[in-house]
Write a structure and sequence with these properties.
- The structure holds 2 protein chains of 2 kinds.
- Among the domains of chain A are: about 80 residues; about 190 residues, von Willebrand factor, type A domain (Rossmann fold), CATH 3.40.50.410.
- Chain A contains 13 helices and 12 strands.
- In chain A, α5 packs antiparallel against α6, α7 runs parallel beside α13 and α10 runs parallel beside α12.
- Chain A is elongated.
- The two termini of chain A are about 30 Å apart.
- By secondary structure, chain B is α/β, with parallel strands linked by helices.
- Chain B has 22 helices and 9 strands.
- In chain B, α1 crosses α4, α6 crosses α7 and α13 packs across α15.
- The model of chain B has no long low-confidence stretch (mean pLDDT about 85).
- Classes of the chains: A alpha/beta, B alpha/beta.
- At the A-B interface, β2, β3 and α1 of A face α3, α7, β4, β5 and α20 of B.
- β2 of chain A pairs antiparallel with β4 of chain B, so a sheet runs across the interface.
């Protein structure tokens, strides 16, 4: 389940083939043209200018005005947008329970500006804009003006024996300084009325968590093909749930004649041999739920993939665990049986099947959040996934 | 009690009404404008983007290319690379203008003066619009077109309709009559149209193929025949869409109707393409005059006036050729400057003006001079007539001669006595659509012979068609014609064949 889930910035680019709108247009190159341009500065008749790169002056531009600059037009979908399309129209099953599982926490959201607040929330840009506007409006003398007067005054004062004119000027400048000083004190650089603070308001944030259990049979009968199909299904489920919940965890449980919780790598790639006892995985899942994922805090999803083989009468045990313990705690539980591509009978008839399938059919009758499907090739996965999560699914299955 | 129309940035519908009445008073009684009744609608930025994608029309049939335009404009707008227009105005009766809701009251006032009176007057009075567009009927026609095309989609499938529209769109610029009215139908053709309405001759051309050729009414193809045939088909024909609509042997009647719709809308928009400078100039001149009058009458505050002027100066900014913002002539700037110049020539003519514009220099009634100019010219003729040496100097125009053979561009004229006339006519020509757009005509199509549609491109000044686009369009034309299509490029002066392309190859 690496790949798209990890690479959040990954983009899906669909090439822009077939959206060109060709029209008859002049070629931007060749021939004789005249251009009239504004803003002559130094040219006189007869001056020559090297031809600008990319063709003949304006010609290149005209071509794009006609809409041909769009040759490279392509839609770039972010992963989110892609998933939006992929999962369009799909809904989480059993939303009633989901709502009750949601917990709410309080976060904050920006909510404009106020005139009062703490210094750490001071909005400098707005404050300085107000200050500048006020200073201009009230004609506060700028530092430059002040400095100019001051330096002239100092210069004059340094003259040891100023003549009459200079003395008059000194007096004049001193008066001016006094006025400037008073104005600068009167009109502050920053005034309390300039201050603007960012405000935040508390907001309730819906917080929901989900855990997906991926259960897979890894006994000898599950070959690369079967595992690949199972992986595709799990991946889709994970992507879909990740969109619906803020926090999604995945638990991988694999089983032969015993079950164990493993990491993703081991789950999909490590080899294991042994018999096939499906109930061990279900027991393991039940244990993990009890241990770590209390059903009143977590939305629990189960997804199981197997080739449909099971040991002896273990299938009945599976049925009982599912009906009594697991399904009541789950939002949804999907069982996918991977069959050979040649098993047309199994694919077309949902009532036919081996022991495990028959028992699971009973589970399905008991619980409407349990669904089961058969797949034989990669092309089946997506349609079946859509079927499982189709919006407004008929309630007949209940 | 102050006379102010408004004081403050927020607009309300009452204030808009008040401002509208004040503007109308100046526009009608002072400037003497003649306008369609106004219908002003306030729209959001989303709606503005929608309107953009419908080439500025209030209703449009569906086609993916409009979605493409919408996606582009929306992305540009959302990423802040392109602002939206303050208004869009439609040449219709009543004249509809869409104003953005986020405009301030001052901007709404400016925009009303600009669009609801400036553009409106131009639409109603300019000869191109009067002769070529039907302002009262456009809404009904658009509604008809939209319904017709969506019905076709239901009946014949979205893909089939899209194929015809794709092909028709490629010929939009070849779907207008540039000089003359469409050939009037003869009595014979009127009868044929009648039968077509009865559902009989939608395939008349095909019928010709069968009866004349297959059933063996053999006739020697003589020279007379060719003359008659070409006469019947109104050849040569510059309006390729019109020709295909009338004479293509393979199109169904609904496909012909779609070609007619595309052609009709191209023709409706053609006057706007020819009058960008004048239309914007007229609207800008009008709003400038009106807001100054409003200020003079004490109806707006100086603050509001400054806000309007700030926007006005942005709009009429003409960057010089070496400015990074330069992207060709700004039609607002040129149009507005020329119209102000006309007013100046009337009111304060110089000796030079008297020499260049003897009939308007010193005319006491500049308003009627202006209205005549607005009514009787298009961009090309307007510039050729009214661009004064004064303005050429003001814009510091210079002219570059660009001969592909030479490695350098040559400055051939500058803004001096020797250059005025050449610069003026060259600038005028750069607004002549018949010159800017390639000259293509249907030369011949012999339905009894090889049925090849023969197009001719007249090459002016050695400027040929862009080959990639040309070949793509020819494929579309072939689809509409049903048989092979060839395009011969001939030099305008020598008549020598420059190139020959055919879909058959």
């Amino acid at each position: 389940m690496t790949g798209p889930t990890d690479a959040a910035g990954e983009q899906v680019t669909i090439p822009a083939k077939g959206i060109k709108e060709p029209v008859f247009g002049h070629s931007p190159k060749g021939g004789f043209r005249k251009h009239v341009l504004p803003g002559n500065k130094e040219f006189v008749v007869g001056d020559t200018i090297p031809r600008p790169k990319g063709g003949a002056g304006e010609g290149g531009k005209k071509a794009s005005e006609d809409g041909e600059g769009e040759d490279g037009f392509s839609f770039t979908l972010t992963q989110d947008e892609y998933l939006e399309i992929l999962f369009e129209g799909l809904e989480l099953p059993d939303l009633v329970k989901k709502a009750s599982v949601e917990t709410e926490t309080i976060g904050t959201r920006r909510a404009g500006l106020t005139t009062a607040g703490t210094p750490n929330n001071l909005n400098l840009v707005r404050t300085m804009r107000n200050s500048l506007g006020r200073r201009i409006a009230l004609q506060r003398p700028s530092k430059a003006t002040y400095d100019a007067v001051l330096s002239e005054l100092l210069e004059l004062e340094e003259i040891t024996s100023p003549d009459e004119e200079e003395q008059a000027r000194i007096v004049e400048l001193r008066d001016k300084m006094a006025i400037l000083d008073r104005r600068r004190k009167l009109v502050g650089y920053i005034d309390p009325i300039d201050l603007r603070f960012d405000t935040h308001v508390p907001e309730k944030i819906r917080n929901s968590k989900a855990v997906v259990f991926c259960l897979m049979d890894v006994s000898g009968s599950m070959q690369e093909r079967e595992k690949d199909l199972a992986k595709r299904f799990f991946m889709l489920l994970h992507l879909f749930l990740e969109r619906a919940y803020e926090h999604t965890e995945v638990v991988f449980v694999r089983h032969t004649h015993h079950a164990e919780e493993v990491d993703e790598e081991t789950f999909f790639y490590a080899r294991e041999t042994g018999g096939t006892i499906v109930s061990t995985a279900l027991t393991k899942m039940k244990e993990i739920i009890e241990e770590r994922y209390p059903a009143d805090e977590w939305n629990i999803y189960g997804a199981q993939a197997s080739d449909g083989e099971n040991f002896g009468n273990d299938s009945e045990k599976c049925r009982n665990i599912l009906i009594d313990d697991i399904i009541p705690q789950c939002q949804y539980y999907a069982y996918v049986e991977i069959v050979g591509e040649e098993d047309e009978k199994l694919l077309s008839d949902s009532t036919a099947g081996a022991d495990l399938w028959q028992n699971f059919l009973q589970v399905k009758e008991a619980h409407r959040q349990f669904e089961m499907r058969r797949v034989a090739e990669p092309g089946h996965i997506y349609p079946i996934f859509r079927e499982l999560f189709a919006a407004n699914k008929s309630e007949g299955a209940a | 009690m102050s006379d102010l129309l408004f004081d403050g940035p927020e607009w309300t519908f009452e204030l808009l009404g008040k401002a509208h009445d004040a503007i109308e008073d100046i526009a009608l009684n002072d400037l003497g404008l003649d306008v369609y009744p106004n219908q002003i609608e306030i729209i959001s930025s989303e709606q503005m983007l929608d309107a953009y994608s419908c080439v500025g029309l209030p209703l449009m049939y569906q086609h993916w290319s409009y979605g493409k335009r919408f996606a582009r404009d929306e992305a540009l707008y959302r990423t802040g690379r392109q602002g939206l227009a303050y208004e869009i105005v439609i040449n219709s009766n009543p004249c509809i203008s869409y104003n953005m809701e986020e405009n301030t009251m001052a901007m709404q006032t400016l925009v009303m003066a600009h669009a609801a009176f400036g553009h409106n007057h131009f639409f109603k009075n300019n000869y191109l619009f009067q002769q070529w567009t039907d302002a009262a009927g456009i809404h009904d026609y658009l509604a008809f077109a939209k319904n017709f095309i969506s019905n076709c989609e239901e009946k014949y499938g979205i893909d089939a309709v899209e194929q015809v529209l794709d092909a028709a769109h490629t010929l939009q610029t070849q779907g207008v009559f540039r000089y003359g009215r469409p050939p009037r139908p003869t009595a014979e053709e009127m009868q044929a149209m009648q039968r077509q309405r009865d559902g009989f001759v939608s395939q008349k051309s095909v019928l010709d193929l069968w009866t004349e050729n297959t059933l063996g009414r053999e006739e020697d193809p003589s020279a007379d025949d060719e003359v008659k045939r070409r006469g019947d088909m109104h050849l040569p024909q510059e309006n390729i869409l019109y020709f295909l609509e009338k004479h293509s042997p393979v199109l169904q009647s609904w496909e012909r109707e779609i070609l007619r719709i595309v052609r009709y809308l191209a023709q409706y928009l053609y006057p706007q393409k020819q009058t960008k400078v004048m239309n914007e100039g007229c609207a800008t001149f009008t709003h400038y005059y009106i807001i100054n009058q409003l200020l003079e009458k004490g109806l707006i505050t100086q603050g509001a006036y400054l806000e309007m002027m700030q926007s006005h100066t942005n709009v009429v900014l003409q960057p010089e050729y070496d400015d990074p913002r330069y992207s060709g002539m700004n039609p607002y700037a040129l149009g507005f400057a020329m119209m102000q110049d006309i007013q100046r020539i009337c009111e304060n003519p110089t000796d030079e003006d008297r020499e260049w514009f003897p009939d308007i220099a010193g005319d006491p009634d500049w308003k009627s001079v202006m209205k005549t100019a607005w009514a009787d010219y298009r961009d090309e003729s307007f510039i050729l007539q009214f661009l004064s040496p004064h303005l050429i100097r003001k814009f510091k125009f210079f002219m570059l001669a660009d001969e592909a053979k030479h490695p350098h561009l040559v400055v051939s004229n500058i803004h001096n006595r020797q250059g005025y006339r050449d610069i003026r006519s060259a600038l005028a020509q750069s607004y002549d659509l018949a010159y800017l757009e390639p000259d293509l005509q249907v030369q011949d199509a012999d339905l009894k012979g090889d049925r090849e549609l023969k197009l001719v491109h007249t090459v002016r000044n050695g400027i040929v068609l862009d080959p990639k686009n040309r070949d793509e369009v020819l494929k579309h034309v072939r689809r509409l014609w049903g048989y092979e299509v060839s395009l011969t490029a001939r030099d305008q002066k020598s008549g020598a064949r420059v190139s020959h392309t055919s879909t058959a190859a």
